[in-house]
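pls design
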C-alpha cells in the first residue's frame, strides 16, 4: 500500500518518558504500532539526552548515572484528517505526557519522482 501525504499536513508530537508503559510494553512502542496499524504515513521515536516536564524532575543521561526515564518524542506526519482520527486512540493509550500539533508543509515523501 503506497501512502500519500498532502503537501499541507500536520505534525503530531508526543512527549513522554522512556519508562511510560502501556501494560507490559513501552508506551512509545504501543503508539508507533497503533499508528502503523491505522496506516498513518510513518512514525519516528527520538530519544532525548536531557529534559524535564510537568514534575520539573530533571531526566539526564550523564556518564556517572544510569539513564533515568529519558525523554522521548514521537513524531508522526500525515493529513490533518488522519491525525485527528488518531487522537482518540492516542488519548486512550496515554496517562500523562504532552501532545502538540502543528501545520507543516511536506516537501518530499518517499523516493524522488522519476523525470
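designed seq:
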Amino acid at each position: 500500500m503506497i501512502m500519500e501525504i498532502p503537501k499541507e499536513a500536520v505534525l503530531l508530537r508526543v512527549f513522554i518518558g522512556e519508562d511510560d508503559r502501556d501494560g507490559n510494553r513501552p508506551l512509545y512502542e504501543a503508539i508507533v504500532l497503533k499508528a502503523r496499524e491505522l496506516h498513518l504515513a510513518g512514525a519516528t521515536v527520538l530519544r532525548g539526552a536531557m529534559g524535564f516536564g510537568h514534575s520539573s524532575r530533571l531526566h539526564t543521561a550523564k556518564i556517572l548515572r544510569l539513564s533515568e526515564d529519558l525523554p522521548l518524542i514521537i513524531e508522526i506526519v500525515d493529513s490533518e484528517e488522519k491525525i485527528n482520527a488518531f487522537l482518540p486512540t492516542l488519548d486512550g493509550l496515554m496517562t500523562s505526557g504532552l501532545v502538540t500539533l502543528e501545520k507543516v508543509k511536506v516537501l518530499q515523501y518517499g523516493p524522488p519522482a522519476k523525470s
